[in-house]
């Protein structure tokens, strides 16, 4: 099984989580920003991470999910969210 751990990361936090996931997966695997993956059809599983913005994925993440998360392809998603220290809770 060939696995891609892809991510979109603005501050580096999502990349750190993606790398931790990548490190725990045995076997044939690749680690890359999802924007740098031209053809994801070679993977049996895609693990895709992105930050949450305004209660959902941003436009870049949505576009990449439409590109890589097609029917019939196995995909696992993870999200990250950060808030400045002292920010009011919603």
Topology (elements, then pairings):
Blueprint: E1 3-7, H1 13-24, E2 29-33, E3 45-53, E4 56-57, H2 59-68, E5 74-80
Parallel strand pairs: 1-2, 1-3, 3-5
Antiparallel strand pairs: 3-4
Characteristics:
alpha/beta, globular, 5 strands, Rossmann fold, about 90 residues, five-stranded mixed sheet
In CATH, the homologous superfamily goes by the name Flavodoxin domain
Strand content: 25-35%
Shape: globular
Number of strands: 5
Radius of gyration: 14 Å
Query: Total helix count?
Result: 2
Could you tell me the mean pLDDT? 86
CATH fold-level assignment = Rossmann fold
Main sheet properties = 5 strands, mixed
The stretches of 5 or more residues where confidence is low (pLDDT under 50) are: none
What's the number of structural domains? 1
State the end-to-end distance.
41 Å
Order of H and E elements = EHEEEHE
The structural class is alpha/beta
CATH class, anyone? Alpha Beta
CATH architecture assignment? 3-Layer(aba) Sandwich
Helix coverage percent? 10-25%
Give an account of the 3D structure.
By secondary structure, the chain is of the alpha/beta class. It has two helices and five strands. The chain has one domain (3-80): Rossmann fold (3-Layer(aba) Sandwich), CATH 3.40.50. It has helices at 13-24, 59-68, and strands at 3-7, 29-33, 45-53, 56-57, 74-80. Strands 1, 2, 3, 4 and 5 form a five-stranded mixed sheet that branches. Helix 1 links the parallel strand 1 (3-7) and strand 2 (29-33). The longest helix is centred in the first third of the chain and has 12 residues, at 13-24. The protein starts with a strand and ends in a 10-residue tail after the last strand.
């Amino acid at each position: 099984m060939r696995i891609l751990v892809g991510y979109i990361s603005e501050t580096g936090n999502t990349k750190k989580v993606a790398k931790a996931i990548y490190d725990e997966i045995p076997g044939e695997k690749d680690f890359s920003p999802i924007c740098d993956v031209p053809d994801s059809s070679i993977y049996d599983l895609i693990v895709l991470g992105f930050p949450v913005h305004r209660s959902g994925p941003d436009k870049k993440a949505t576009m990449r999910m439409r590109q890589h998360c097609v029917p019939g392809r196995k995909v696992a998603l993870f999200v990250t969210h950060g808030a400045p220290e002292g920010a009011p809770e919603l």
